[in-house]
């Protein structure tokens, strides 16, 4: 009585065409491009720099490990680095645990 009947539409919706589909996905495409330039590309650049630093490690370099330990490189092997943290005290760590290469003479100034 008080509620009118609801009927389904009998006509088909118009085809949005190429521009309609493109405008539907445009925000998604733009977000992906922005995320690439703000997050993915800088991360790849950082990974390349870290890999180059690990390959360039040599005896006598002063480094900081992921745990915050400072030391001087005594020996470099394929996957491991021996670090002298104090006179006569050496530690063996993985190469990927070395996070920073310090300038020469930094350990003496500390």
UniProtKB/TrEMBL annotation:
Chief localization: membrane
Keyword terms of this UniProt record: Cell membrane, Membrane, Protein transport, Translocation, Transmembrane, Transmembrane helix, Transport
Location within or outside the cell: Cell membrane
Recorded topology in the membrane: Single-pass membrane protein
UniProt entry tagged with the keyword Membrane: yes
Segments crossing the lipid bilayer: 20-40
UniProt cross-references to InterPro entries, sorted A to Z: Preprotein_translocase_YajC (IPR003849)
UniProt keyword annotation of Protein transport present: yes
Family per record: Belongs to the YajC family.
Protein name from the UniProt record: Sec translocon accessory complex subunit YajC
Species this protein is from: Massilia niabensis
Lineage: Bacteria, Pseudomonadati, Pseudomonadota, Betaproteobacteria, Burkholderiales
């Amino acid at each position: 009585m008080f509620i009118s009947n609801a009927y389904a539409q009998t006509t088909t919706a118009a085809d949005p065409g190429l521009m309609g589909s493109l405008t539907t996905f445009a925000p998604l495409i733009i977000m992906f491009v922005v995320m690439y330039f703000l997050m993915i590309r800088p991360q790849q650049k950082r990974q390349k720099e870290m890999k180059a630093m690990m390959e360039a490690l040599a005896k006598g370099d002063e480094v900081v490990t992921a745990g915050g330990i400072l030391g001087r490189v005594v020996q470099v092997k394929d996957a491991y680095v021996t670090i002298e943290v104090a006179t006569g005290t050496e530690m063996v760590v993985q190469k990927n645990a070395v996070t920073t290469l310090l300038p020469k003479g930094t350990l003496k100034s500390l």
